[in-house]
Amino acid sequence: MPDATPVTTNPRVTSSVPAASPFLIAESLRIGLMRDGAELRIVDAADFTLDAGASLGIVGESGSGKTMLCRSFIGTLPRYGVRVLGGRLTIGGRDVTGATEDDWRAIRGKVIGYVPQSSLAGLNPVLTVETQLLEALQIGQAMDKTAARAEARRLLDLVRIPRVDAVLQERSHQLSGGMKQRVMIAAAIALRPPLLVLDEPTTALDVTVQYEILTLLRQLREDLRMGMILISHDLAVVEFLCQRVMTMYAGATVELGQADAIRARPRHPYTLALLHSRLGMAERGQDLVAIPGEMPVVGAWPEGCRFGPRCAHAVDACRSGPQPLPRFVDTHLTACIRAEEVT
Amino acid sequence: MAGTTAGVRVDGDLIAIDGLHVTYRTRGDDVLAVQGFDLRLRAGASTGIVGESGSGKSTVAKAIVGLVAPSQGSIRIDGDLVAGTDASGNRATGYVRANRWKVQMIFQDPYGSLDPRQQPLDAVAEAVHQWQPGSRGAARTEALGLLKSVGISERQATSGLRALSGGQRQRVSIARALAPRPQVLVADEPTSSLDQSAQAAILNLLRRIQAERGLAIVFISHDLALVRYLTDTVMVMKDGFVVESGSTDRVFSTPDHDYTKRLIASVLA
Q1: From the first residue on, what is the mean pLDDT of each consecutive set of 10 residues in chain B (269 residues)?
Q2: Is the CA virtual torsion A76, A77, A79, A85 positive or negative?
Q3: Burial B42-69 (b: 16+ CB within 10 A, else e)
């Protein structure tokens, strides 16, 4: 459940959303930087909600803006030279759009746990697993060392690490990739956040370890009734873990809905192309379906639908005007003016 | 031929590996990374080596291209004994210029395997000039052709590496690997750092190159779907041993070993 204590000391951070509202609300959220007096957007008009305990997978190619969007949920955008340019972000019933670093310190770990990209390199190589878990546990809460040690053991049990006593005294070079990821997950959920955000958590792992980690995450989500946002370029990974899927392209949300509905009938050509490019979709000897061209870089988004230049369904009307806004077609939202014809 | 210690040519086999063992020494301990690995691969054929981290698959790849030395066994490339000691006691003197060009490798990380200060064109032209007689100007012309054949335009070839995506960088790596006109490509997780669409484009490219050039390809991967799609035969490795091998269709449809069954069961639908 959302933390009952205020997460902000900033008078600009207001609590205007009732507690019964979705746990996370992004309203026309724009992320980027100012250049020559104009907005250079990386994420454009992200609009979605996430209920407490619900799960959302965000898919898209490299450069689609999915990682920056998730960094806005933990307030680390300034570390990358970018910020929220506009719109509103509400987490746990509190508007955090203008939250300060002090505010975010009270949110990170407690309200939102985060497992970053390249998290296999995220452990400090000179500290033991126990020291790092104790640090995670003692951030923002008073806990004596004995209690914290017991909690660290419990956390490793929770993420199904064998030989807990030995592993607590080991350093990252002594752990396999799968074990490191389990420790990172343990640290991220140490303070029992109601929402866990994971950025490509299994990309560097073997197929068997990936399966074990995803199974663990699914179990944790159910046991702890924890919400989850998962970033991946692999639709199969997202479908395994998440009830809803959001497809991003060039900073824009192009499709959003229930995972099974989108898989059964994607209504945006980009999601369709991502599905078709999966290895499992091709027979041996056949060419795989690659999406032609490359994702446009930030600042060089084309007129009209940003996917238009790579889209097999594009017509003249797709190549002018603004990026189409998502609209409901059948079961879910899609930002394609020809959605009814996409098959 | 220079580099042929025994002078024995195995007809048709571009790669012939017999009883390969590789041992790593760490602080006095011997770690047996590969134990008793055999492989035969002909021109135009492809084999996949699958297994989890630590299974020894990447060590096999490194041994094939001469980056690690066998502790036992032998590796022949196109009949030349390039590594180890064969059954008759002939010792290889290692890769020499006469056979080095025949085997090239594509690495996993296109961000780490290219010099970030070098233009793609220079990276490929340098490899062409190294292996083919002719002027630097001719090498640049050939390099441009190679880059174009893998889908890199002249503008991209002469721009900074930073302007290229991961998929485009891997194309540059492939063009560079093709520069010596090799007979064998060893691809170690060539698409694992790429997203789905870029992966599809690179795999299509590798299939096309293989068909056009009659290359033998060894794919190292933990991605069973990739191996199933691309290779004729597959070898499943665990703890340094090959626990199952055979035609890719057979291994995937009726796996014998429990570990193979576990790998296949882990593939997400």
Answers
A1: 38 89 86 95 94 90 93 93 91 81 90 89 94 90 93 90 86 94 93 84 90 93 87 95 96 95 86
A2: negative
A3: eeebbbbbbbbebbbbbbbbbbbbbebe
The answer to whether B101 touches B120, Cβ cutoff 8 Å, is no
Please give the residue of chain A at the shortest CA–CA distance from B164.
A294
For A:233-272, CB contacts with B below 8 A are 233-237, 239-240
B13-26/B216-221 β-pairing: unpaired
Q: Is A278 within the bounds of a domain?
A: yes
CB contact under 8 Å between B165 and A211, yes or no, is: no
Neighbours of B244 (CB within 10 A): 21
**Option in B52, B197, B204 nearest A209 (CB):** B52
B198/A contact by beta carbon, under 8 A: yes
Task: Provide, as residue numbers in chain A, all residues whose Cβ is less than 8 Å from the Cβ of B167.
Answer: 294
Domain count, chain A: 1
Arithmetic mean of pLDDT, A161-188: 92
Residue type, A93: G
Is B2 in the A-facing interface, judged by CB distances under 8 Å? no
Yes or no, beta carbons of B196 and A278 under 8 Å apart:
yes
Give a yes or no: residue A225 inside a domain. Answer: no
Is residue B217 within 8 angstroms of chain A, CB to CB?
A: no
Contacts of B112 in chain A (CB under 8 A): none
Most trustworthy range by pLDDT among A1-10, A172-181, A220-229: A220-229
CB pairs under 8 A between A and B: 89
- Could you give phi then psi for residue A292, rounded to 5 degrees? -65, 155
Whole-angstrom distance, CA of residue A133 vs CA of residue A136: 5
Using a CB–CB cutoff of 8 Å, tell me whether A118 touches chain B: no
Domain for residue A40, yes or no? no
Query: What is the model's pLDDT at position B268?
Result: 79
d(CA A119, CA A6): 29
CA distance B92 to chain A (A): 34
Domain limits at A341?
266-343
Q: Where would I find the beta strands (DSSP E) of chain B?
A: 13-26, 29-42, 46-50, 72-77, 80-84, 103-106, 184-188, 216-221, 233-238, 241-247
CB proximity A174 to B under 8 Å: no
Task: Write out the two tokens for A90.
Answer: 């509400």
Report the alpha-carbon distance of residue B158 to residue B152 in Å, rounded.
Answer: 10
Tokens in use for B43? 């021109």
For residue A61, the chain B residues in CB contact (below 8 A) are: 195-198
The whole-angstrom separation of Cα B161 and Cα A52 is: 43
**B52 close to A (CB below 8 A):** yes
Q: What is the DSSP letter of B63?
A: H
Q: Concatenate the DSSP letters of all residues of A244-299 into one string.
A: EEEEEETTEEEEEEEHHHHHHS--SHHHHHHHHTSGGGS-TTSPP-PPSS-PPPTT
Does the CB of B130 have a partner CB in chain A at under 8 Å? Answer: no
